[in-house]
Design a protein that fits this description.
- By secondary structure, the protein is an alpha/beta fold.
- The protein has one domain (3-277): Rossmann fold (3-Layer(aba) Sandwich).
- Helix content is 31%, strand content 23%.
- It has helices at 3-12, 15-18, 92-104, 164-175, 197-206, 216-224, 249-277, and strands at 25-29, 41-47, 65-70, 76-81, 109-118, 128-136, 182-188, 210-212, 228-238.
- Strands 5-8-7-6-9 form a five-stranded mixed barrel.
- Helix 1 packs across helix 3.
- The two termini are 31 Å apart.
- It binds hypoxanthine (HPA).
- Hypoxanthine is lined by residues 115-117, 189, 194-195, 211-213, 236-237, 239, 247, 252.
């Protein structure tokens, strides 16, 4: 990864982002999760399109703006509303920009969220899965290339990408709305095509519970840089072949929109409970 891209991105941010107390946490809000930002008091907002090396979000359900806001429970929170995906054709730097900016702006905690298809048949659309681990089912990785210690060790440990203590805080936040989070393993598919039923059967045999086209690169980079990571998948559909229903990106967006208030509540409660867990 090219460090100058991140330096230029940071230099382009309004001063409020770079001055004052470091954010207590950074949030990366994927499909269905963007509404969480609306309930926060924003101190400063910048569209991704104005951040060099990031670029406008191109996928429906991804707002493409970075917000610095007052966090419930005190302090500040950095909120990435929407993400860039590898399948959009952008550079890795754009995909992992939230992880690197979170680290550089001093956030000790990074919550990554997404919408995903359920592989495990006991899950159903509307469920929320707490990520316990992931499967990167392709050789694609943002960490390929000459080693730069600014992005962590050459061989980052991946045995605990998702922080169990943050997971407990998320469970406590979910309990406030009588929501039980299932633990699950997230499989990264490259997209943009949905998977075939045969692929989904294979992922299931390998131990995946949910599947999606994001999250893993950002989580890998943040954890390699020493940021504590937590991950949540909102189940927007049963994965290919798990139900007889054919997959349609619009259904993912519609399902996510129906559940957006609940997901926003979960994120806000997590922020409120966070200080106690640190
Ligand atoms: N597959 C991959 N990505 C997804 C899915 C899916 O079924 N649902 C939401 N994102």
């Amino acid at each position: 990864m090219d460090e100058t891209i991140f330096n230029n991105a940071i230099a382009s941010l309004p001063q409020t982002f770079r001055e004052g107390p470091a954010p207590r946490a950074a949030l990366l809000l994927g499909s269905g999760w963007n509404r969480a930002a609306d309930s926060l008091t924003a101190l400063e907002t910048i569209p991704y399109s104005e951040i060099p090396g990031f670029g406008a979000a191109t996928v429906t359900g991804h707002d493409g703006r970075l917000v610095l806001a007052e966090a419930p429970g005190g302090g500040r929170v950095l909120v990435f509303c929407g993400r860039r995906h590898w399948y959009e054709g952008c550079e890795w730097e754009a995909v992992v920009m939230p992880a690197v900016l979170a680290r550089r702006l001093g956030a000790p905690v990074f919550l990554v969220t997404n919408a995903a298809g359920a592989i495990r048949t006991s899950l159903a659309p509307g469920d929320v899965v707490l990520l316990s681990d992931h499967l990167r089912l392709s050789p694609l990785t943002p960490l390929r290339g000459p080693h730069n210690p600014a992005f962590g060790p050459r061989f980052p440990d991946q045995s605990r990408v998702y922080d169990p203590e943050l997971g407990e805080t998320l469970r406590a936040a979910a309990a406030r709305q009588n929501l039980t989070l299932s633990d699950g393993v997230y499989a990264l598919a490259c997209g943009p095509a949905f998977e075939t039923p045969a692929e989904i059967r294979a992922y299931g045999i390998l131990g995946a519970d949910v599947v999606g086209m994001s999250t893993v690169p950002e989580a890998m980079v943040a954890s390699a840089m020493g940021v504590r990571v937590a991950g949540l998948s909102f189940v927007s559909n049963m994965a290919a072949g798990i139900s007889s229903r054919r997959l349609d990106g619009n259904d993912v967006v519609d399902c996510a929109a129906r559940h957006a208030p609940r997901l926003a509540r979960l994120v806000l409660d997590f922020l409120e409970l966070l200080p106690a867990a640190q």
